[in-house]
Every structure is written in C-alpha cells, then in structure tokens.
Amino acid sequence: MILPPEEQERRRRSVQRTFDDLRLDGLRPSHEARVDAEDYISGRRTLDELIERVVQRHARS
Predict the structure, then answer these.
(1) How many C-beta atoms lie closer than 10 Å to residue 15's C-beta?
(2) Nearest-angstrom CA–CA distance, 2 and 49
(3) Angle at 58 (CA atoms; ends 54, 59), nearest 5 degrees
(4) What is the pLDDT of residue 60?
(5) Residues of the chain whose pLDDT is less than 70?
(6) Structural domain boundaries enclosing 55
(7) Cys bridge to 3: 31, 43, 47, 59, which one at CB 3.0-4.6 A?
(8) What is the CATH number of the domain that holds 25?
(9) Considering its fold, how many domains does the chain have in total?
C-alpha cells in the first residue's frame, strides 16, 4: 500500500520520537528495528505487523 506523504511523515515523526526515547535510556534500535520502522513508515507493514515481528524477534532470544 502506498501511503500519502502526510501519513508517511506522521509515521516518521512517531518512529523518531520512539527511537529518541530509546537513546535517552542509553539504548540503540537494532538494524532489524530500523528496517521494520522503514517498512512501517513506507506502508509496507502495519503497526500490528511491526509489533508481531518485534515480539517474535525477542521471543527467540
């Protein structure tokens, strides 16, 4: 699904705030998290899909 530029920008700001919060806590988003975030921003993944991928990734650890 191709998202309108306004929605992509809204998502980009939201992801950036989340990543900034991680950094304030001394953490860094993983490469996988950054790739997932770009997929979400562009509309290739939904938020539910993004959350499911994170849960799966951390359940393996």
Answers:
(1) 19
(2) 16
(3) 115
(4) 72
(5) 61
(6) 5-60
(7) 43
(8) 1.10.8
(9) 1
Question: Can you list the alpha helix ranges (DSSP code H) found in 1-61?
Answer: 5-24, 31-42, 47-60
Residue with tokens 């304030």: 24
Question: What confidence score (pLDDT) does residue 26 get?
Answer: 97
Tell which phi-psi region holds residue 18, choosing left (phi > 0), alpha (psi between -120 and 50) or beta. alpha
CB 29 within 8 A of CB 22: yes
Both tokens of 54, joined, read: 């994170």
Per-residue pLDDT, 9: 98
Indicate the DSSP class of residue 45: S
What length is written for the chain? 61
Q: Hey, how many other C-beta atoms are within 10 angstroms of the C-beta on 26?
A: 6
Q: Which of 1, 5, 13 is nearest to 43 (CA)?
A: 1
Record the tokens describing residue 56, joined without a space: 């799966």
